[in-house]
Amino acid sequence: TATHLQIFNTYLAYDDGTAETGYGITNSPNGSQVALAFNMPGNMTDTLYGIGIHFNQSLVDESNDPVALRVWSSVDTANLPKIKDQVIAELDNITPKYTDYRNGFYYFPLDTPRAVSGTFYLGWSQFSDFMLNVGFDRNYTQIRGAGYNPYFYNVNGLWYRSYDDGVPMIRAFV
Questions:
Q1: Fewer CB under 10 Å: which end of the chain, C or N?
Q2: Which of 57-61, 96-100, 107-111, 166-170 has the lowest mean pLDDT?
Q3: pTM, entire model
Q4: What's the sign of the alpha-carbon dihedral 53, 17, 168, 122?
């Protein structure tokens, strides 16, 4: 006999719920951005209600350093001169919120739910140089063998695909 417990939930995620380390961008005095791509299957459309993020508690408390949480319908990962990133939702002046339980996610509701389809991106923009320290799941290996990683970072106005082994712990609540 074989059994398997399958949990269905109301969020999309790449992580397995445990942070092996932290992730953030430093040494970028002009600010930086991180975007994690989510793909809706087929022609399916769903409603995005909020963003969940696991902020690591570490030696440096960043709970007073504001960032903007963003939802993009497209990100110019090819860095073409006439293409613009399409922000469809933004939560300004968000500060990291730490939870009281291990590997906990803090939920940030959108002011207005947004329809999402195809590929959309969740992430953050920071306007000063500090280590945000978002949980990073190093166990993410589902499609790494194909040389694909679903997250990008932006420094100096250009997007780059990350080749780190793992993903930031960001969840799309649909």
A1: N
A2: 57-61
A3: 0.90
A4: negative
